[in-house]
């Protein structure tokens, strides 16, 4: 019996572990190291309507237990994706989530309509990338535009749409706007805006000065956001991510309310790490005589002192 | 990830040459690099070109420049770390084996060039390896180490003057400033290849963390390089 098997929108998923958008590109290189088909799902790097060259180097800085990046959504645009990459992605026997980013409702609609007939499962709207000056950040600041983007995207497809948010102070309000306009779920959380300064030169290390912080230190924020949204929206599917490096991290996010668990930064540090996390989570569940769905949202049970 | 154990550490404050032994037989071509990290904590691996490699052993040249090199310099015999690779295109993919090359190394960028010189001595016309600390001579054995500035000359001018009048093909690895200077002084008919370095994330091309601007758009140092034609890159 597969203790890790889970269900979302009546779709059987072999395990809850998915690759978060970004760190693993579109899996061409990763597929030479691990078997993508062993994963619960994969999320593409964010695709935009037009090609984006990304930010200048340095784009990446190591932090102890995490990193700071300002890649800037480098990608070759939706047409290149369709011509060169989607066929290979379709062939993977796993949940396929397509991450898309844009500046307005027409960008999102255009991209969804172009790829909707391919064998893909969900969309994830990247509404919160900290590394683009326009687009993501603006969308969250303009609720009217945000509503239009979500509504129009949802009307363009029958496939579920997830909205990816960061650590926003008005997260509940944003999720409410999302649900009201037809979103099927949320992805929590994106990287947090941060900075690192070289104390020998006094200058920020990243060329763009600021970037997105990921790693162990954002896990408590991720757990908080997931918990908060699960509390308010008991049946809303949540993809949880932020600082997942081992099975304990993954279980914590699941107990906060995550139905699927994204692994991101850890994959850059060790591309084989997701296999260890899958194996150790199965071992944990087996030792507790539970399956994965038993532990999802466990922290919301209104009982004191329960022991698994 | 694979395990590597220190079998020799010849380090002083500024530089170090560390030899590692592994359980995996290594086949590393000059110009390729390994991604190395400590066994503890969650950190990005750092790319290191190998200076020498034979069967189960490889050697790296390090400069004390950051937290990880500080950690490496202090490693004792028997201590372990993790690595994966080799990654990156070898020099042999780009260079013409019917030609002779001049090698210009700057600091730790000398490591892959020393490896090239050892494996393919017949294609080397001349070489210079510039360092800022004379004590490098106690840990690196090569006749062409250049430490002191001669008559205000830098290693690049020095080696090019020494080979004036010859058909020059260059392979260089070192700091970006050296490449900018090289691009400025070489003639349009001369060929120069440069092995570039950039902050890296994954080391295999998936994270897009190590871009280099080229005349053909943005490329990744880890996957498309690290060797590039100097005419191709926008420095």
Automatic annotation (TrEMBL), chain A:
The lineage of its organism: Bacteria, Thermotogati, Thermotogota, Thermotogae, Petrotogales. Catalyzes the conversion of dihydroorotate to orotate. The gene is pyrD. Its EC number is 1.3.-.-. One of its GO terms (cellular component) is cytoplasm. GO terms for molecular function: dihydroorotate dehydrogenase activity. The keyword Cytoplasm applies. Substrate binds at residues 45, 69-73, 126, 190-191. It comes from Oceanotoga teriensis. It is found in: Cytoplasm. Residues 4-280 form the Dihydroorotate dehydrogenase catalytic domain. This is Dihydroorotate dehydrogenase. It is an enzyme of class 1 (oxidoreductase). The active site is at 129 (nucleophile). NCBIfam families: PRK07259.1, pyrD_sub1_fam. Binds 1 FMN per subunit. FMN binds at residues 21, 45-46, 126, 164, 189, 215, 242-243, 264-265.
From TrEMBL, chain B:
Binds 1 FAD per subunit. Binds 1 [2Fe-2S] cluster per subunit. GO terms for molecular function: 2 iron, 2 sulfur cluster binding; flavin adenine dinucleotide binding; metal ion binding; oxidoreductase activity. Keywords: 2Fe-2S, Electron transport, FAD, Flavoprotein, Iron, Iron-sulfur, Metal-binding, Transport. This is Dihydroorotate dehydrogenase electron transfer subunit. It comes from the Bacteria. Belongs to the PyrK family. InterPro entries: Cbr1-like_FAD-bd_dom, Cyt_c3_hydrogenase_gsu, Dihydroorotate_DH_ele_sf, Dihydroorotate_DH_Fe-S-bd, FAD-bd_FR_type, FNR_nucleotide-bd, PyrK_electron_transfer, Riboflavin_synthase-like_b-brl. Residues 1-93 form the FAD-binding FR-type domain. FAD binds at residues 61-63. Its cofactor is FAD; [2Fe-2S] cluster. Signal peptide: none annotated. One of its GO terms (biological process) is pyrimidine nucleotide biosynthetic process. [2Fe-2S] cluster binds at residues 202, 207, 210, 222.
